Amino acid sequence: MSVFKIKIWFTACSLSLLLLAGCKDEVKEFENPYSGGKLPLGLKFNTASFIEPTQGSANDVVTVSVVGAEQYKTQLRFQFSGEEAEIVSIAGDVVKVKVPAAGSSGSTSIQIGDQIFFGPQFKVFGKISDDPYFKAKIGANNTIYDAYKLKTGKYLMVGEFTDFNEKGIVLAIKKIAETTYEGEVQRTLQLGTGVVSGYLSAVTSSPNDANIFVAGNMSAFDLRGPVKNITRLTALGAIDLKQVDTYSSKNGGATYPKLTVPVFNGGTDAPIKRIFYFNNGIIAVGGFKYYVSHRYDVGRTFTYTSGNTTLTGYRDSLVRDSIPIRQVVRFKLDGGLDNTYHFSGGTTLDGGNGNILDAVMQADGKLVLVGAFSKFDNKAAGGIVRLNADGTVDDSFQVGKGATGYITSINWNSTTQRFVLTGVFSSFNNRSIQNILVLKADGSIDDTFVSGNFDSGYPSFAQQLSNGLIVVSGNFKKYNNVRRAGFMILSPQGSLAQGYNTLGELTGTINRVLEERNKDNKRSIVLLGSFRKFDSQAVQNIKGLVLED
Predict the structure, then answer these.
(1) Residues 465, 451 contacting (CB under 8 angstroms)
(2) Angle in degrees, CA 136, 143, 166, rounded to 5
(3) CA distances (Å), 302 to each of 1, 244, 306, 526, in order?
(4) Which pLDDT belongs to residue 20?
(5) How far apart are CA 243 and CA 404, in angstroms?
(6) Whole-number Å distance between alpha carbons of 12 and 26
(7) Which residues have C-beta within 8 Å of that of residue 353, sequence separation ≥ 6?
(8) What is the enclosing helix (H) or strand (E) of 359?
(9) In this predicted model, what pLDDT tens digit does every residue of 162-178 receive, in sequence order?
(10) In whole angstroms, what is the distance from residue 497 CA to residue 209 CA?
């Protein structure tokens, strides 16, 4: 064994020696305990040639250079993103492998026993790819929660972001952006500074976009208020304002000018998660306990003495009225409380005994709520309930006992007439169903969809496209023992859709999927959410893809 000299300086000093003669340095030599070591198993990827080609489709034969491969000819296993590949031949350091049918883009690897050696990246082609017309390459610098398509064809996107595609450098973009479907920022609406503090989680509008409504966690919009988590915008995107007489202006005359305030005078005591327009009203869902509004006609008189004279003055006092309302509320279009919705005998109903995590509305105004509750309005509800257009529980909804666990997301597809649900549950209505299921419009289980097994996590979002394919995201690593890290596309029957699962890992989660035809008339989707890496690419919360029919 060769000797590797290591010099270690010892300071052999005592206090007395330090005072008398100083310190003495000594040199000692040791053998290197790591010298003469070998490469693990004598196996490694050859960095000089690596892999050829670097991209291909399922069943393509790829050549890989692996030093020491031949000596492990009967033991070597090769994988594409964790999926086993057929080894066609091994000759010397040349390994020929076939891209597996379930292979996806990402790292290649070789395995001998329990030892794994990671190799080069490989791009797997399939029926899904980047949309060449998508323009939001930089994306949003924080989460996108929701999007709404205006009659102009443009979209309003809302979330926690303070910049979108780096267009906020010129003009502020605060939690709301007007974009094309391809993600190009527009400046036709007068959104101003948007929401400076807080975030927006939902957006909708009245017919013909006469008014736009935004909600979330905010106290002002475009620096105008007071706002309590929801407000109304004009058709041009500016916060809708009016002037009101305050108590002081009524009693003090011209010296007390009118106050400019939002037209929408209503809100909640806690953030709003979803909002829906129906029949001249806005239905909001969230974790709130109170409906709140402001009184401008109430003030306080006060007296003070000046010499021998007692004077009366007027002082404005922004009075906030509050009414107990749990989780679901219907606003009139000016923010007033609609006490005919989710009320009984003039009293609001109880709501759920746990959190509401998501909600969707059907065309007839019926609202489906999901979450972590076992009762709603004192009726048994296993994480899911449907409300009639007046807010009362719809007993005709055929979900039975619901989920054993909780439901994290629900989406409704008006074309397929199906709900898709995800969550942490092992059964639904006494049937063994794990983490994802499809319901018919009446709430009964769609037996044509059979959920598979999730490994190391669960799905947090799923949305069905108009052609029946289902986009799924979450923190799972495998589905039915096939490597699908955080993202997959399922067939309407619940299996991995063939050819649509070649993209690599998604780090994060999806909140919404938009669907249109791109300029080549191909089916395209835009993913919105909270994710920073997808298919080995750095992305920021938005991604455009094309799906071959």
Answers:
(1) no
(2) 40
(3) 97, 22, 13, 59
(4) 39
(5) 52
(6) 8
(7) 373, 374, 375, 376
(8) strand 356-361
(9) 999 999 887 889 999 99
(10) 37
Q: Tell whether omega for the bond before 226 is within 30 degrees of 0, i.e. cis.
A: yes
Which segments in the chain show pLDDT lower than 70? 1-40, 247-256, 298-304, 306, 310-318
In angstroms, the Cα distances linking 155 to 512, 523, 546 are 13, 18, 19
Let me know: does 444 contact 398? Beta carbons within 8 Å: yes
Which amino acid is residue 459, in one-letter code?
Answer: P
Q: How many CB atoms lie within 10 A of CB 358?
A: 22
Contact in structure between 210 and 150 (CB atoms under 8 Å):
no
For residue 34, give both structure tokens: 């790591």
Give me the residue label for tokens 């869902």.
285
530: tokens are 């909270």
∠ CA 42-48-52, rounded to 5°? 105
Q: Which two tokens stand for residue 365?
A: 């105004």
Residue 256 is predicted with a pLDDT of 66
d(CA 351, CA 201): 21
- Which residues contact residue 546 at a Cβ distance below 8 angstroms, ignoring those fewer than 6 apart? 128, 129, 130, 131, 132, 518, 520, 522, 523, 524
SS (H, E, C) 134-203: CCCCCCECCCEEEEEECCCCCEEEEECCCCECCCCCCCCCCCEEEECCCCCECCCCCCCCCCCCEEEEEE
What whole-number distance in Å separates Cα of residue 421 and Cα of residue 409? 6
Rounded Cα distance, 533 and 531, in Å: 6
CB of 166 within 8 A of CB of 147? Answer: no
Q: Which residues are paired to 510 by β-bridges?
A: 529
Q: Say if CB 84 and CB 102 are below 8 A apart.
A: no
Rounded to whole angstroms, how far apart are CA atoms 162 and 124? 35
Give the Cα separation of 188 and 546 in Å (integer): 28
Q: What is the pTM of this model?
A: 0.87
Give which of 533, 486, 529 is closest to 511, Cα–Cα: 529
CA–CA gap between residue 518 and residue 546 (Å, rounded): 8
Q: What is the CA radius of gyration of the chain?
A: 31
Report the chain's terminal Cα–Cα distance, integer Å. 65
Q: Are 525 and 470 in contact (CB under 8 A)?
A: no
Residues whose CB falls within 8 Å of the CB of residue 141, separated by 6 or more in sequence, listed in order: 161, 162, 163, 164, 540, 541
